[in-house]
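Standup notes, structure subgroup. Blocker cleared on the histidyl-adenosine monophosphate input:
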Amino acid sequence: MIKSPRGTRDLLPPDTALWNFVEAAVRDVFRAYNFHEIRTPIFESTELFVRGVGEETDIVSKQMFTWEDRWRSLDSGDNLPPGPQFEAIKQQTDAMYAASRRRGQSLTLRPENTAGVVRAYIEHKLWDRGLNKLFYIGPQFRRERPQKGRYRQFYQIGAEVIGPASAGSESPARDAEILELLATLLDRLGITKWTLELNSVGSSSDRVKFNDALRQALAPVVEKMCADCQRRAVTNPLRVFDCKVPEDQPIIDTLPTITQFLSDESRAHYEAVKQILNAVGIPYVENPRLVRGLDYYTHTAFEFTHRALGAQNAILGGGRYDGLSEALGGPAAPGIGFAIGEDRLVLSLMETESAESVVRKPDVYIAPLGAGMNRQAARLARELRRHDLVVDLGDESFRLKKSFEAADKMGARYILIVGENEVAADAFALKHLASGEQVTVPRAELAQRILRKK
Ligand code: HAM
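Run returned:
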């Protein structure tokens, strides 16, 4: 049997109803905050993530699905039959094949979508539009060890606010609006037991000082740490905080935090964000050790965690990335965004909501009874569906008992019987399945009758 690859899964009904419920709710919230959808490719140049997310991050160094893509439509000259008449063509095709190999490029399934959105911002000169408020919903790919809440293909619901500073992109008001949007979104979905963890990771120059201090603090102890940390201590000391090795944690706990290295401006930005959050009543917990696992962050960094999720408790994460556009060769374009792990969001939701409760069950199941009745049933189904009723139907070969069983199983509210007598009278037997009450209803009144809630 061929199974889905490790770390991927099929989402099946009725669970997909919960996914749709979530996506419909977030689209409503995004609309209220004037965000618009962006769809970027599922694969991008590898270089985008190396430069955007950072070479030393776990994502780029260990988790990407990357391949060398060649132009394969050309075949090498080897397949030509021998003979002097083919020699010239052979040389030509060999040369083209070699050139195509040189033109080949390294591609990667996107492990996250911020880099892709900023690439699109630069490619399409979106600064002409002022402040861009964009959202996306879609799959991301990371080769991680699968466990509950952690998959190799997972889904993110994300948003990015990006634009020139003159459009207000740098303002702490943007940070606060993003955080308030997230609180609203989770509340609306009925997910209440969340904690917002907040930090400032400062500007890039604050981080130069912080990295120096980390290097110094690490120098006397780094030998006792894992090989990854020994490398990080030299190349990108901040990434030491991503270490999961238990023996290294006591050392990591003694390292300085970024807070002491924030400039006055960085501090002022952070304070302004907190003041707005206080004003709108969004609770948060400050966590000076929250640095996030991607290199592009500046200033505000945050995660929302949820108790029900266990080890993989980060339901979403995000922050500001004021230098990312420049790092990707674009103009200055301060930005802030987040990505929700949709798989984890749905898991949290399952605490309170069953998939069954959000599925819309058929309003009516039509049971054609006897030869020639499929035609009549199809006509009726077409009429009723025009009234936005959910209609399912059986087959004229089914005995009545079988139709009743099918209607019951799918949770239909009514069953409508379509036999020769009913067609002749143009009035049909309509039975309410829960109460067993049965009435004969003329064709013209059927939709209204079924629409009446029972
Ligand atoms: P991230 O923290 O890497 O940030 O991912 C965001 C969320 O995606 C996580 O909090 C988690 O819920 C979910 N997630 C990550 N990996 C997995 C996985 N293997 N399986 C299931 N869920 C997962 C980013 O991706 C940034 N691009 C967020 C951002 C947007 N920052 C600024 N703008």
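Discussed briefly. The pocket of histidyl-adenosine monophosphate is lined by residues 112-114, 142, 144, 149-151, 154, 156, 158, 160, 293-294, 314-319, 321, 337-339, 341, 343-344 (CB under 6 Å).
Next: hand off to the docking folks.
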